[in-house]
Amino acid sequence: MNPEGQNSGSRFKIHLFGRIALVAGIFSAVLCILLIVNYVQLERTDPLNSPALETLIVRLGEDPEDTELREQIRALDLLARRAYFSRLWQIRTAGLMLIGSVVILILSLKVLRSGRQKLPDEKMKLTVWQSASLSRIGVIAAGVMLVAGGLVTGFLSHSALSEEYELAAPREAGGAGTTGSAERGEQVAGSPDSEAASAENPAAEQPEIKENYLDREELRSNWPGFRGAGGVGIAYVEDAPTRWDGTTGEGILWKTAIPKPGFNSPIVWGDRLFLSGADEQGQEVYCLEGSSGAILWQRAVDDVPGSPSEPPEVSPDTGYAAPTMSTDGSGVFAIFATGDVAGFDPGGNRLWARNLGVPENHYGHSSSLLTYRGLLIVQYDHEGGARLLALDTKTGATVWETERQVMTSWSSPILVYTGMRPEIIINANPFVGSYDPDTGRELWQVECMYGEVGPSPAYSDGGVYAANQFAQLVAIDTGTREILWEVYDDLPDASSPLAVEGCVYVPTGYGYLSCLDAAGGDIYWTHEYGGSSYSSPVFAAGRIYWMDKSGVMHIFQAGTEFIPVADPPLGEASWAVPAFVDGRIYIRGEQHLYCIGE
Questions:
Q1: pTM
Q2: What residue numbers bound the domain in which 40 lies?
Q3: Is residue 325 within 8 Å of residue 369, measured between CB atoms?
Protein backbone atom coordinates (compact mmCIF):
# COMPACT_ATOMS: atom_id res chain seq x y z
CA MET A 1 0.00 0.00 0.00
CA ASN A 2 1.10 3.57 -0.54
CA PRO A 3 2.22 5.09 2.81
CA GLU A 4 1.76 8.57 1.39
CA GLY A 5 -1.85 7.79 0.50
CA GLN A 6 -2.51 6.41 3.96
CA ASN A 7 -1.05 9.53 5.57
CA SER A 8 -3.12 11.72 3.28
CA GLY A 9 -6.30 9.88 4.33
CA SER A 10 -5.39 10.21 8.00
CA ARG A 11 -4.77 13.94 7.61
CA PHE A 12 -8.19 14.28 5.92
CA LYS A 13 -9.84 12.40 8.80
CA ILE A 14 -8.06 14.64 11.31
CA HIS A 15 -9.18 17.72 9.43
CA LEU A 16 -12.81 16.49 9.21
CA PHE A 17 -13.14 15.46 12.84
CA GLY A 18 -11.32 18.57 13.92
CA ARG A 19 -14.07 20.64 12.32
CA ILE A 20 -16.74 18.43 13.92
CA ALA A 21 -15.09 18.80 17.32
CA LEU A 22 -14.91 22.57 16.88
CA VAL A 23 -18.63 22.84 16.02
CA ALA A 24 -19.62 20.47 18.84
CA GLY A 25 -17.46 22.40 21.31
CA ILE A 26 -18.94 25.77 20.37
CA PHE A 27 -22.48 24.34 20.42
CA SER A 28 -21.89 22.79 23.85
CA ALA A 29 -20.51 26.04 25.21
CA VAL A 30 -23.53 28.01 23.94
CA LEU A 31 -25.97 25.53 25.49
CA CYS A 32 -24.05 25.64 28.78
CA ILE A 33 -24.27 29.41 28.89
CA LEU A 34 -28.01 29.33 28.11
CA LEU A 35 -28.65 26.78 30.87
CA ILE A 36 -26.67 28.84 33.37
CA VAL A 37 -28.61 31.98 32.39
CA ASN A 38 -31.87 30.04 32.72
CA TYR A 39 -30.89 28.92 36.20
CA VAL A 40 -30.19 32.50 37.25
CA GLN A 41 -33.57 33.59 35.86
CA LEU A 42 -35.31 30.70 37.62
CA GLU A 43 -33.80 31.80 40.91
CA ARG A 44 -35.26 35.25 40.40
CA THR A 45 -38.71 34.36 39.01
CA ASP A 46 -41.35 31.72 39.64
CA PRO A 47 -43.93 31.42 36.83
CA LEU A 48 -46.45 29.71 39.10
CA ASN A 49 -46.32 32.30 41.88
CA SER A 50 -46.19 35.63 40.13
CA PRO A 51 -46.82 38.74 42.24
CA ALA A 52 -49.60 39.79 39.84
CA LEU A 53 -51.45 36.51 40.34
CA GLU A 54 -51.06 36.61 44.11
CA THR A 55 -52.31 40.21 44.18
CA LEU A 56 -55.44 39.21 42.26
CA ILE A 57 -56.04 36.28 44.63
CA VAL A 58 -55.80 38.63 47.61
CA ARG A 59 -58.32 40.96 45.96
CA LEU A 60 -60.64 38.03 45.31
CA GLY A 61 -60.46 37.12 48.98
CA GLU A 62 -61.67 40.63 49.79
CA ASP A 63 -64.50 40.40 47.25
CA PRO A 64 -65.40 36.72 46.55
CA GLU A 65 -68.43 37.70 44.46
CA ASP A 66 -66.33 39.48 41.79
CA THR A 67 -66.82 37.04 38.91
CA GLU A 68 -64.84 39.22 36.47
CA LEU A 69 -61.83 39.15 38.81
CA ARG A 70 -62.20 35.37 39.16
CA GLU A 71 -62.04 34.98 35.37
CA GLN A 72 -58.92 37.19 35.27
CA ILE A 73 -57.27 34.91 37.82
CA ARG A 74 -58.12 31.82 35.80
CA ALA A 75 -56.81 33.38 32.57
CA LEU A 76 -53.55 34.50 34.22
CA ASP A 77 -53.16 31.11 35.88
CA LEU A 78 -53.57 29.38 32.52
CA LEU A 79 -50.87 31.60 30.99
CA ALA A 80 -48.58 30.81 33.92
CA ARG A 81 -49.13 27.09 33.44
CA ARG A 82 -48.34 27.34 29.74
CA ALA A 83 -45.13 29.29 30.47
CA TYR A 84 -44.24 26.78 33.17
CA PHE A 85 -44.65 23.78 30.89
CA SER A 86 -42.86 25.52 28.01
CA ARG A 87 -39.84 26.31 30.18
CA LEU A 88 -39.67 22.74 31.45
CA TRP A 89 -39.76 21.45 27.86
CA GLN A 90 -36.99 23.87 26.86
CA ILE A 91 -34.77 22.74 29.74
CA ARG A 92 -35.28 19.08 28.93
CA THR A 93 -34.58 19.63 25.24
CA ALA A 94 -31.48 21.73 25.91
CA GLY A 95 -30.18 19.13 28.35
CA LEU A 96 -30.57 16.31 25.83
CA MET A 97 -28.95 18.40 23.10
CA LEU A 98 -26.05 19.24 25.43
CA ILE A 99 -25.47 15.59 26.27
CA GLY A 100 -25.53 14.70 22.56
CA SER A 101 -23.09 17.46 21.60
CA VAL A 102 -20.70 16.48 24.41
CA VAL A 103 -20.74 12.86 23.23
CA ILE A 104 -19.93 14.01 19.68
CA LEU A 105 -17.12 16.24 20.99
CA ILE A 106 -15.55 13.40 23.00
CA LEU A 107 -15.75 10.93 20.11
CA SER A 108 -14.25 13.50 17.71
CA LEU A 109 -11.35 14.18 20.07
CA LYS A 110 -10.71 10.44 20.42
CA VAL A 111 -10.59 10.08 16.62
CA LEU A 112 -8.21 13.07 16.42
CA ARG A 113 -5.94 11.61 19.06
CA SER A 114 -5.90 8.21 17.31
CA GLY A 115 -5.13 9.81 13.95
CA ARG A 116 -2.31 11.85 15.40
CA GLN A 117 -0.63 8.77 16.83
CA LYS A 118 -0.74 7.00 13.46
CA LEU A 119 0.95 9.83 11.50
CA PRO A 120 4.77 10.12 11.35
CA ASP A 121 5.82 13.29 13.16
CA GLU A 122 7.83 14.57 10.21
CA LYS A 123 4.85 14.39 7.85
CA MET A 124 2.17 15.64 10.20
CA LYS A 125 1.06 19.13 9.33
CA LEU A 126 -1.78 20.26 11.59
CA THR A 127 -3.49 23.56 11.82
CA VAL A 128 -2.91 25.79 14.81
CA TRP A 129 -6.38 25.03 16.22
CA GLN A 130 -5.93 21.24 15.78
CA SER A 131 -2.61 21.28 17.61
CA ALA A 132 -4.05 23.34 20.43
CA SER A 133 -7.14 21.15 20.75
CA LEU A 134 -4.99 18.05 21.02
CA SER A 135 -2.19 19.26 23.25
CA ARG A 136 -3.45 21.99 25.53
CA ILE A 137 -4.89 20.06 28.41
CA GLY A 138 -5.85 23.23 30.23
CA VAL A 139 -8.21 24.34 27.47
CA ILE A 140 -9.95 20.96 27.44
CA ALA A 141 -10.16 20.97 31.23
CA ALA A 142 -11.75 24.41 31.17
CA GLY A 143 -14.25 23.20 28.57
CA VAL A 144 -15.08 20.16 30.68
CA MET A 145 -15.67 22.41 33.70
CA LEU A 146 -17.97 24.66 31.64
CA VAL A 147 -19.94 21.68 30.37
CA ALA A 148 -20.18 20.24 33.87
CA GLY A 149 -21.41 23.60 35.13
CA GLY A 150 -24.06 23.72 32.42
CA LEU A 151 -25.21 20.18 33.18
CA VAL A 152 -25.40 20.91 36.91
CA THR A 153 -27.37 24.13 36.46
CA GLY A 154 -29.61 22.46 33.91
CA PHE A 155 -30.31 19.69 36.40
CA LEU A 156 -31.02 22.21 39.16
CA SER A 157 -33.35 24.16 36.87
CA HIS A 158 -35.18 21.01 35.87
CA SER A 159 -35.46 19.82 39.47
CA ALA A 160 -36.85 23.15 40.62
CA LEU A 161 -39.41 23.24 37.86
CA SER A 162 -40.41 19.59 37.92
CA GLU A 163 -41.79 19.42 41.44
CA GLU A 164 -45.18 18.77 39.84
CA TYR A 165 -43.89 16.96 36.75
CA GLU A 166 -41.07 14.62 37.71
CA LEU A 167 -41.81 10.91 37.71
CA ALA A 168 -43.10 9.87 41.08
CA ALA A 169 -40.46 8.06 43.09
CA PRO A 170 -41.25 4.54 44.28
CA ARG A 171 -43.14 4.71 47.57
CA GLU A 172 -43.33 2.03 50.23
CA ALA A 173 -46.88 0.83 50.68
CA GLY A 174 -48.32 1.87 54.02
CA GLY A 175 -51.45 1.56 56.10
CA ALA A 176 -53.30 -1.31 57.61
CA GLY A 177 -54.05 -4.14 55.25
CA THR A 178 -51.61 -2.90 52.57
CA THR A 179 -50.83 -5.60 50.04
CA GLY A 180 -49.02 -3.84 47.19
CA SER A 181 -48.68 -5.68 43.90
CA ALA A 182 -44.96 -6.19 44.42
CA GLU A 183 -45.61 -7.81 47.82
CA ARG A 184 -48.19 -10.14 46.28
CA GLY A 185 -45.63 -11.24 43.70
CA GLU A 186 -48.00 -10.42 40.84
CA GLN A 187 -46.65 -9.90 37.35
CA VAL A 188 -47.20 -6.58 35.63
CA ALA A 189 -48.22 -6.68 31.98
CA GLY A 190 -45.30 -5.69 29.80
CA SER A 191 -42.62 -6.67 32.35
CA PRO A 192 -39.93 -9.27 31.49
CA ASP A 193 -41.53 -11.76 33.91
CA SER A 194 -44.97 -11.42 32.38
CA GLU A 195 -43.57 -11.68 28.85
CA ALA A 196 -41.70 -14.84 29.80
CA ALA A 197 -44.83 -16.32 31.34
CA SER A 198 -46.79 -15.52 28.19
CA ALA A 199 -44.14 -17.18 26.03
CA GLU A 200 -44.28 -20.37 28.12
CA ASN A 201 -48.06 -20.35 28.34
CA PRO A 202 -49.90 -18.64 25.47
CA ALA A 203 -53.15 -18.89 27.43
CA ALA A 204 -51.67 -16.68 30.15
CA GLU A 205 -52.75 -13.57 28.24
CA GLN A 206 -56.37 -14.75 28.13
CA PRO A 207 -58.12 -13.41 31.23
CA GLU A 208 -60.79 -15.32 33.03
CA ILE A 209 -64.16 -14.06 31.85
CA LYS A 210 -65.84 -12.12 34.64
CA GLU A 211 -69.39 -10.85 34.88
CA ASN A 212 -70.11 -7.25 33.97
CA TYR A 213 -70.36 -5.48 37.31
CA LEU A 214 -71.67 -2.36 35.55
CA ASP A 215 -74.71 -4.25 34.24
CA ARG A 216 -76.28 -4.13 37.70
CA GLU A 217 -79.64 -2.35 37.56
CA GLU A 218 -79.03 -0.54 40.84
CA LEU A 219 -75.98 1.16 39.34
CA ARG A 220 -77.69 2.18 36.12
CA SER A 221 -80.84 3.46 37.82
CA ASN A 222 -78.82 5.66 40.19
CA TRP A 223 -75.90 8.06 39.78
CA PRO A 224 -73.19 6.56 42.03
CA GLY A 225 -70.22 8.76 41.18
CA PHE A 226 -68.57 11.31 38.90
CA ARG A 227 -70.14 11.08 35.42
CA GLY A 228 -72.48 8.29 36.53
CA ALA A 229 -71.98 4.52 36.63
CA GLY A 230 -68.37 3.72 35.78
CA GLY A 231 -67.58 7.41 35.30
CA VAL A 232 -68.11 7.37 31.51
CA GLY A 233 -70.87 9.99 31.21
CA ILE A 234 -73.78 7.73 30.20
CA ALA A 235 -77.21 8.29 31.78
CA TYR A 236 -79.49 5.25 31.50
CA VAL A 237 -82.75 7.23 31.37
CA GLU A 238 -85.60 7.20 28.88
CA ASP A 239 -86.17 10.95 29.02
CA ALA A 240 -84.68 14.07 30.56
CA PRO A 241 -85.79 17.72 30.80
CA THR A 242 -84.71 20.17 28.11
CA ARG A 243 -86.43 23.38 29.28
CA TRP A 244 -85.85 25.32 32.48
CA ASP A 245 -84.84 28.74 33.78
CA GLY A 246 -83.22 29.09 37.16
CA THR A 247 -83.88 32.83 37.28
CA THR A 248 -87.65 32.63 36.78
CA GLY A 249 -88.06 29.24 38.45
CA GLU A 250 -89.45 27.56 35.33
CA GLY A 251 -88.79 23.82 35.49
CA ILE A 252 -87.05 24.11 38.89
CA LEU A 253 -88.60 21.72 41.42
CA TRP A 254 -86.40 22.98 44.23
CA LYS A 255 -83.04 24.55 44.99
CA THR A 256 -81.10 24.31 48.24
CA ALA A 257 -78.19 26.43 49.45
CA ILE A 258 -75.08 24.37 50.25
CA PRO A 259 -73.24 25.66 53.35
CA LYS A 260 -69.66 25.21 52.16
CA PRO A 261 -68.25 25.63 48.63
CA GLY A 262 -67.10 22.79 46.43
CA PHE A 263 -66.52 22.00 42.77
CA ASN A 264 -67.66 18.39 43.08
CA SER A 265 -70.82 17.08 41.43
CA PRO A 266 -73.86 15.53 43.14
CA ILE A 267 -74.27 11.76 43.36
CA VAL A 268 -77.62 10.00 43.81
CA TRP A 269 -78.83 6.74 45.34
CA GLY A 270 -82.57 6.26 45.63
CA ASP A 271 -84.11 9.39 47.12
CA ARG A 272 -80.82 10.56 48.62
CA LEU A 273 -78.31 13.01 47.15
CA PHE A 274 -74.77 13.45 48.44
CA LEU A 275 -72.10 16.08 47.92
CA SER A 276 -69.28 17.67 49.89
CA GLY A 277 -68.03 21.14 50.71
CA ALA A 278 -64.90 22.55 52.32
CA ASP A 279 -62.94 25.71 53.00
CA GLU A 280 -59.97 26.63 55.18
CA GLN A 281 -62.12 26.26 58.30
CA GLY A 282 -63.42 22.74 57.72
CA GLN A 283 -64.72 19.86 55.59
CA GLU A 284 -68.30 18.60 55.42
CA VAL A 285 -70.49 15.99 53.76
CA TYR A 286 -74.17 16.65 52.99
CA CYS A 287 -77.14 14.37 52.41
CA LEU A 288 -80.28 15.85 50.82
CA GLU A 289 -83.72 14.41 50.22
CA GLY A 290 -84.32 14.04 46.49
CA SER A 291 -88.03 14.77 46.63
CA SER A 292 -87.82 18.00 48.64
CA GLY A 293 -84.21 19.21 48.65
CA ALA A 294 -84.13 19.27 52.46
CA ILE A 295 -80.73 18.65 54.05
CA LEU A 296 -81.26 15.40 55.96
CA TRP A 297 -77.85 15.41 57.60
CA GLN A 298 -74.64 17.39 57.56
CA ARG A 299 -71.42 15.89 58.92
CA ALA A 300 -68.03 17.40 59.56
CA VAL A 301 -64.97 15.41 58.51
CA ASP A 302 -62.69 16.32 61.40
CA ASP A 303 -60.45 14.70 63.99
CA VAL A 304 -58.95 12.53 61.25
CA PRO A 305 -55.73 10.80 62.34
CA GLY A 306 -52.78 12.23 60.37
CA SER A 307 -54.73 15.17 58.97
CA PRO A 308 -52.57 18.30 58.54
CA SER A 309 -52.90 21.06 61.12
CA GLU A 310 -52.99 23.64 58.32
CA PRO A 311 -54.78 23.10 55.00
CA PRO A 312 -52.59 22.92 51.87
CA GLU A 313 -52.47 25.71 49.32
CA VAL A 314 -54.98 25.28 46.50
CA SER A 315 -55.97 27.32 43.46
CA PRO A 316 -59.29 29.22 43.45
CA ASP A 317 -60.75 27.03 40.71
CA THR A 318 -59.97 23.77 42.51
CA GLY A 319 -60.60 24.52 46.16
CA TYR A 320 -60.69 22.00 49.00
CA ALA A 321 -63.61 19.85 47.83
CA ALA A 322 -63.13 19.24 44.10
CA PRO A 323 -63.39 15.42 43.96
CA THR A 324 -66.87 13.99 43.50
CA MET A 325 -68.01 11.49 46.13
CA SER A 326 -68.98 7.88 45.44
CA THR A 327 -71.58 5.46 46.82
CA ASP A 328 -72.51 1.80 46.50
CA GLY A 329 -75.81 2.16 48.36
CA SER A 330 -74.47 0.83 51.65
CA GLY A 331 -72.00 3.66 52.22
CA VAL A 332 -71.01 7.07 50.90
CA PHE A 333 -67.41 8.23 50.61
CA ALA A 334 -65.63 11.56 50.25
CA ILE A 335 -62.06 12.78 49.82
CA PHE A 336 -60.64 16.29 50.25
CA ALA A 337 -57.59 18.36 49.31
CA THR A 338 -56.06 17.59 52.71
CA GLY A 339 -55.84 13.90 51.84
CA ASP A 340 -58.60 13.09 54.33
CA VAL A 341 -60.95 10.36 53.11
CA ALA A 342 -64.03 9.25 55.05
CA GLY A 343 -66.92 6.81 54.84
CA PHE A 344 -70.48 7.24 56.17
CA ASP A 345 -73.50 4.99 56.20
CA PRO A 346 -76.70 6.30 54.53
CA GLY A 347 -77.93 7.57 57.90
CA GLY A 348 -74.90 9.83 58.41
CA ASN A 349 -72.97 7.71 60.91
CA ARG A 350 -69.25 7.90 60.29
CA LEU A 351 -67.85 4.46 59.54
CA TRP A 352 -64.19 5.43 59.34
CA ALA A 353 -61.80 8.23 58.38
CA ARG A 354 -58.10 8.30 57.56
CA ASN A 355 -55.51 10.52 55.94
CA LEU A 356 -53.63 9.32 52.86
CA GLY A 357 -50.92 11.97 53.15
CA VAL A 358 -51.30 15.54 51.93
CA PRO A 359 -51.24 15.41 48.11
CA GLU A 360 -48.37 17.49 46.77
CA ASN A 361 -49.54 19.47 43.76
CA HIS A 362 -49.97 23.14 42.99
CA TYR A 363 -53.74 23.26 42.32
CA GLY A 364 -55.27 20.90 44.85
CA HIS A 365 -56.50 17.33 44.67
CA SER A 366 -59.40 16.76 42.27
CA SER A 367 -59.49 13.06 41.29
CA SER A 368 -62.94 11.63 42.04
CA LEU A 369 -63.72 8.31 43.72
CA LEU A 370 -65.07 4.98 42.43
CA THR A 371 -66.72 2.07 44.24
CA TYR A 372 -66.43 -1.55 43.13
CA ARG A 373 -67.46 -4.70 45.01
CA GLY A 374 -66.79 -3.42 48.52
CA LEU A 375 -63.73 -1.43 47.41
CA LEU A 376 -63.23 2.32 47.26
CA ILE A 377 -60.89 3.13 44.36
CA VAL A 378 -58.65 6.18 44.87
CA GLN A 379 -56.42 7.65 42.16
CA TYR A 380 -53.67 9.49 44.04
CA ASP A 381 -51.25 10.83 41.44
CA HIS A 382 -49.09 13.53 42.97
CA GLU A 383 -45.45 14.43 43.37
CA GLY A 384 -45.15 12.80 46.78
CA GLY A 385 -45.78 9.34 45.34
CA ALA A 386 -48.27 8.48 42.60
CA ARG A 387 -50.36 5.43 43.33
CA LEU A 388 -53.72 3.75 42.87
CA LEU A 389 -55.39 2.39 46.01
CA ALA A 390 -58.36 0.26 46.94
CA LEU A 391 -59.78 0.78 50.44
CA ASP A 392 -62.22 -1.49 52.22
CA THR A 393 -65.54 0.39 52.17
CA LYS A 394 -66.46 -0.90 55.65
CA THR A 395 -63.19 -0.17 57.47
CA GLY A 396 -61.08 2.12 55.28
CA ALA A 397 -58.15 -0.32 55.44
CA THR A 398 -55.95 -0.60 52.34
CA VAL A 399 -56.81 -3.77 50.41
CA TRP A 400 -54.28 -3.22 47.63
CA GLU A 401 -51.99 -0.42 46.49
CA THR A 402 -50.15 -0.04 43.18
CA GLU A 403 -47.35 2.43 42.58
CA ARG A 404 -47.57 4.40 39.35
CA GLN A 405 -44.60 5.92 37.51
CA VAL A 406 -46.54 8.98 36.35
CA MET A 407 -46.51 12.70 36.97
CA THR A 408 -49.05 14.68 38.96
CA SER A 409 -52.51 14.50 37.39
CA TRP A 410 -55.98 15.79 38.17
CA SER A 411 -58.03 13.32 36.13
CA SER A 412 -60.38 10.69 37.55
CA PRO A 413 -60.44 6.93 36.93
CA ILE A 414 -63.16 5.19 34.96
CA LEU A 415 -64.42 1.62 35.40
CA VAL A 416 -65.38 -0.23 32.22
CA TYR A 417 -66.14 -3.75 31.05
CA THR A 418 -64.11 -4.67 27.96
CA GLY A 419 -65.97 -7.87 27.12
CA MET A 420 -63.79 -10.19 29.20
CA ARG A 421 -63.20 -8.36 32.44
CA PRO A 422 -63.68 -5.07 34.32
CA GLU A 423 -60.81 -2.59 34.03
CA ILE A 424 -59.90 0.67 35.75
CA ILE A 425 -58.54 3.04 33.11
CA ILE A 426 -56.60 6.18 33.99
CA ASN A 427 -55.26 9.09 31.94
CA ALA A 428 -51.96 10.62 33.13
CA ASN A 429 -48.55 11.78 31.94
CA PRO A 430 -46.86 9.87 30.32
CA PHE A 431 -49.27 6.98 29.77
CA VAL A 432 -52.86 5.78 29.72
CA GLY A 433 -52.99 2.71 31.96
CA SER A 434 -55.39 -0.11 32.77
CA TYR A 435 -55.65 -1.96 36.10
CA ASP A 436 -57.48 -4.97 37.50
CA PRO A 437 -59.95 -3.58 40.08
CA ASP A 438 -59.83 -6.81 42.12
CA THR A 439 -56.05 -6.87 42.62
CA GLY A 440 -54.60 -3.57 41.41
CA ARG A 441 -52.37 -5.39 38.92
CA GLU A 442 -51.44 -3.29 35.90
CA LEU A 443 -52.94 -4.87 32.80
CA TRP A 444 -51.47 -2.61 30.13
CA GLN A 445 -50.18 0.87 29.45
CA VAL A 446 -49.76 2.99 26.32
CA GLU A 447 -47.31 5.88 26.47
CA CYS A 448 -49.04 8.69 24.59
CA MET A 449 -49.74 11.60 26.94
CA TYR A 450 -47.90 14.60 28.37
CA GLY A 451 -48.54 17.89 30.14
CA GLU A 452 -50.75 18.61 33.12
CA VAL A 453 -53.49 16.01 32.65
CA GLY A 454 -56.96 17.02 33.83
CA PRO A 455 -59.46 15.25 31.52
CA SER A 456 -60.58 11.74 32.40
CA PRO A 457 -60.69 9.11 29.63
CA ALA A 458 -63.79 8.06 27.70
CA TYR A 459 -64.74 4.52 26.68
CA SER A 460 -67.06 2.84 24.20
CA ASP A 461 -67.12 -0.55 22.42
CA GLY A 462 -63.54 -1.56 23.21
CA GLY A 463 -62.03 1.85 22.53
CA VAL A 464 -60.45 4.21 25.05
CA TYR A 465 -60.29 7.90 24.17
CA ALA A 466 -57.85 10.02 26.18
CA ALA A 467 -56.96 13.66 25.64
CA ASN A 468 -55.18 16.64 27.13
CA GLN A 469 -54.67 20.23 26.00
CA PHE A 470 -51.27 20.90 24.34
CA ALA A 471 -50.92 17.13 23.86
CA GLN A 472 -53.31 15.09 21.73
CA LEU A 473 -56.49 13.02 21.61
CA VAL A 474 -55.71 9.33 21.15
CA ALA A 475 -57.92 6.34 20.45
CA ILE A 476 -56.63 3.08 21.95
CA ASP A 477 -57.90 -0.42 21.18
CA THR A 478 -58.15 -2.25 24.52
CA GLY A 479 -57.74 -5.61 22.76
CA THR A 480 -54.57 -4.95 20.74
CA ARG A 481 -53.43 -2.01 22.96
CA GLU A 482 -52.54 -0.07 19.84
CA ILE A 483 -53.17 3.58 19.06
CA LEU A 484 -55.82 3.67 16.34
CA TRP A 485 -55.69 7.37 15.56
CA GLU A 486 -54.60 10.74 16.94
CA VAL A 487 -55.96 14.30 16.78
CA TYR A 488 -54.09 17.44 17.82
CA ASP A 489 -56.59 20.31 17.56
CA ASP A 490 -59.34 21.61 19.89
CA LEU A 491 -58.42 19.60 22.99
CA PRO A 492 -59.78 19.79 26.55
CA ASP A 493 -57.89 21.15 29.56
CA ALA A 494 -60.30 20.05 32.32
CA SER A 495 -63.48 18.73 30.68
CA SER A 496 -63.52 15.04 29.75
CA PRO A 497 -64.47 13.60 26.35
CA LEU A 498 -67.57 11.44 25.87
CA ALA A 499 -67.78 8.37 23.63
CA VAL A 500 -71.16 6.93 22.68
CA GLU A 501 -72.92 5.42 19.63
CA GLY A 502 -69.90 5.62 17.32
CA CYS A 503 -69.04 9.24 18.12
CA VAL A 504 -66.53 10.94 20.39
CA TYR A 505 -67.55 14.36 21.74
CA VAL A 506 -64.57 16.49 22.68
CA PRO A 507 -65.17 19.68 24.73
CA THR A 508 -62.61 22.45 25.20
CA GLY A 509 -62.16 24.97 27.98
CA TYR A 510 -62.88 27.87 25.62
CA GLY A 511 -66.34 26.85 24.39
CA TYR A 512 -65.70 24.66 21.35
CA LEU A 513 -67.17 21.16 21.10
CA SER A 514 -66.27 18.71 18.34
CA CYS A 515 -67.88 15.45 17.24
CA LEU A 516 -65.48 12.86 15.80
CA ASP A 517 -65.83 9.43 14.26
CA ALA A 518 -64.90 6.95 16.99
CA ALA A 519 -63.51 4.47 14.46
CA GLY A 520 -61.29 6.73 12.38
CA GLY A 521 -61.00 10.11 14.10
CA ASP A 522 -62.54 12.11 11.24
CA ILE A 523 -64.31 15.28 12.40
CA TYR A 524 -68.05 15.27 11.76
CA TRP A 525 -68.64 18.78 13.07
CA THR A 526 -67.36 21.49 15.41
CA HIS A 527 -69.58 24.04 17.12
CA GLU A 528 -68.59 27.17 19.05
CA TYR A 529 -70.73 28.01 22.07
CA GLY A 530 -68.61 30.93 23.22
CA GLY A 531 -68.62 30.28 26.97
CA SER A 532 -65.79 28.50 28.73
CA SER A 533 -66.45 25.26 30.63
CA TYR A 534 -65.00 22.92 33.25
CA SER A 535 -67.96 20.52 33.13
CA SER A 536 -68.02 17.34 31.03
CA PRO A 537 -70.72 16.31 28.53
CA VAL A 538 -73.27 13.61 29.40
CA PHE A 539 -75.35 11.42 27.10
CA ALA A 540 -79.00 11.15 28.17
CA ALA A 541 -82.10 10.10 26.22
CA GLY A 542 -80.42 10.45 22.83
CA ARG A 543 -79.10 13.93 23.59
CA ILE A 544 -75.84 15.48 24.78
CA TYR A 545 -75.89 17.83 27.78
CA TRP A 546 -72.91 20.14 28.33
CA MET A 547 -72.81 22.91 30.96
CA ASP A 548 -70.68 26.05 30.60
CA LYS A 549 -69.27 28.07 33.51
CA SER A 550 -72.04 30.66 33.37
CA GLY A 551 -74.58 27.93 34.12
CA VAL A 552 -76.05 27.59 30.63
CA MET A 553 -76.72 23.99 29.63
CA HIS A 554 -76.11 23.35 25.94
CA ILE A 555 -78.31 20.51 24.68
CA PHE A 556 -78.10 18.98 21.20
CA GLN A 557 -78.98 15.72 19.50
CA ALA A 558 -76.34 13.01 19.61
CA GLY A 559 -75.12 12.14 16.13
CA THR A 560 -72.97 13.02 13.16
CA GLU A 561 -74.96 16.18 12.39
CA PHE A 562 -75.17 19.09 14.80
CA ILE A 563 -78.83 19.62 15.74
CA PRO A 564 -79.35 22.03 18.64
CA VAL A 565 -82.19 21.42 21.09
CA ALA A 566 -82.07 24.14 23.75
CA ASP A 567 -79.78 26.25 25.95
CA PRO A 568 -81.56 26.62 29.30
CA PRO A 569 -79.88 28.83 31.97
CA LEU A 570 -79.35 27.79 35.58
CA GLY A 571 -79.22 31.34 36.86
CA GLU A 572 -75.83 31.00 38.56
CA ALA A 573 -72.34 29.84 37.68
CA SER A 574 -71.59 26.13 37.62
CA TRP A 575 -68.54 23.91 37.12
CA ALA A 576 -70.16 20.56 37.95
CA VAL A 577 -71.36 17.60 35.92
CA PRO A 578 -75.16 17.13 36.11
CA ALA A 579 -76.67 13.94 37.57
CA PHE A 580 -79.55 12.26 35.70
CA VAL A 581 -81.97 10.01 37.60
CA ASP A 582 -85.58 9.03 36.90
CA GLY A 583 -86.52 11.95 34.64
CA ARG A 584 -84.81 14.57 36.80
CA ILE A 585 -81.53 16.48 36.53
CA TYR A 586 -79.56 17.54 39.61
CA ILE A 587 -77.07 20.37 39.06
CA ARG A 588 -74.71 21.95 41.55
CA GLY A 589 -74.31 25.67 41.06
CA GLU A 590 -71.83 27.94 42.75
CA GLN A 591 -74.10 28.32 45.78
CA HIS A 592 -77.12 26.00 45.36
CA LEU A 593 -78.06 22.47 44.40
CA TYR A 594 -80.90 22.44 41.84
CA CYS A 595 -83.48 19.81 41.01
CA ILE A 596 -84.90 20.12 37.48
CA GLY A 597 -87.95 18.21 36.33
CA GLU A 598 -91.70 18.25 35.88
A1: 0.72
A2: 3-161
A3: yes
